[in-house]
Amino acid sequence: MTTSSSSRLRLGACLSLSGKYARFGKQAGLALEIWQSTTQGVDLTIVDDGSDPDQLEAQLPHLAESCDILLGPYSTLLMRRAGALAETMDRLIWNHGGSGDDVETAHPGHVVSVLTPTSRYAEPFVRHLTTREDPHPLWILQGKGSFGRQVADGAERTAHSLNIRTARLKPTEIHDFPAPEAWSLFCAGSFEEDVETVTLVRSLPTPPQTVCAVAAGVREFGQAVDNPLGVYGVGQWFPGGGGHVALSMSEDDFLRAYRKRSGSLPDYPAAQAAAAAAIATHCARQAAGTTREALWDTAIALETTTMFGAFKVDPRTGAQIGHQTALTRWGAEGPAIVTSKPRHPKAPPS
Questions:
Q1: What pTM does this model have?
Q2: Positive or negative, the Cα torsion across 344, 319, 322, 119?
């Protein structure tokens, strides 16, 4: 497809409005509607993939026929299928929902990602541990599937680069592993797995002094556990991160509009979807066309910021290299962004 920069752009997204990913797919859908209401010259179509790879495979080609710009689904599992489809169709798809390292690098020229890859998810928490004079040993627990494995592997590599001792832990070992007197825990699994892990470890005879869970990076965590106080979370974005916004709406405007529509604040799946839409339409207008090649060439040359944070991709693969995850900590009034300066300035390899 080729579209003039003065023409209306047709943007389509497959999202999980039902099924196991609906919690976050619906947030992404609402965010896209809010973004579209503030953006001139864009028509938006959202179809439900049912959280099912086969349903996604049936829906995406039909959506591609009627849209200039394609946004991918939420979740690494679904985005893995969407990336393969994009290559088959010779289209470019904007990845806002699948942070798996293999997903971000699997289809150069066909997938552009706005998300920090999973292997770098834990970086802000592990660096935060170095604010202590003598960081406790870090035990790392991964959930099922490739997401948990990639996040856990990345946490281990970052810790080793910062001279923090680590050990790996399986979910079945929580009750009887040789816990030291002072230790920290990082867990990376599904939302349900992390909630179960945090609940279990806090009831141990020697609980960890510091706990960080990927699930704690979203607000629903506060209702899923009895007492979230003090738990750290990591996620792609959290309100209050600040920073200059070069493209699209400001964080304050987005939060105000989202709260008005839903009655609550958004989690990172909402922000990353809106950011992907803003970047994709910017590239389409800069390129004066929506062919795969034109969008790819424009995207890999772009370095900018949205209310989601920084955007810059690896020109060889399309993987995100500019964006950083956010570290939060649950307090009496809910989660808040953590800012800290590590004692050891050495940064882990990218």
A1: 0.88
A2: negative
